[in-house]
Amino acid sequence: MSADWSTLVSAEALAAALGRDDLVIVDCRFSLAAAAGAVDAGERAWRTAHVPGAVYAHLDRDLSGPHAPGRGRHPWPTAAAFAQALGRWGIGEGVQVVAYDDGDGAFAARLWWLLHSFGHRRVAVLDGGWARWTALGLPVDASVTARSPRDAAGAFAADALLHAADDIRRHVAAGGLLVDARAAPRFRGEVEPIDPRAGHVPGAVNRPYADNLADGRFKPADALAREFGVLLDGRPPSALVAMCGSGVTACHHLLAMAHAGLDGARLFPGSWSGWIEDPARPVATGP
Questions:
Q1: Are 28 and 98 within one domain?
Q2: Of 8, 85, 244, 250, which residue is the catalytic one?
Q3: 244 assigned to active site
């Protein structure tokens, strides 16, 4: 039976599936550090060692699009550009995709949500990522092999994203949930290491994406279901829109919710960095 993973996959299960014709593994390691050369640190690490057969996805070049007003630091790519990347990686209909990174799964979750909202549901994130893979002594490889390109086409589901700030305002005003995945000090406006203004969108609530994890892996589905159930407070998952600094770590919440059986939440891809591009938009601080 072929692998069929749609949220998370363990290192042990992936190791047993290596070499399958229907499997594409994507290394999403990346660094947001401001140091010179940091932007390509993930790709350099991939060239040094990676899960056997893995291709590389660069957050800026492959998992983001060109800047446009209000779209934030990591703009959502166009469907055409994303389809071109999928074809280059050999990802077509029916392919099982597994994404990983060397952090807490946030960059891999960005690819997961891109594919999920593109209609490709056989995609999972490696639970525990590169750290757990190497800790278990599982195989690594340094060779870079191009995959046979495939034709890929599609469109992002219109109900998966809320791009416009006005739509976010209406969502909050109607009683919808806007959940900010940034760390609490950033949400409160006490620190801001990346963006030019500190604070949060008025009406947003804070759940740091790290709360989805325990000991470097995602919490069990039932635990996540309980925790997000408290946030939802009787509302359906579709009432929740996730955001963060630039639409990357928010995808971690969407993956955690799907793992918990709570499908239907959406993403504000411009997130905080897109919101503050217009200085006239209100900014809240505090808890």
A1: yes
A2: 244
A3: yes
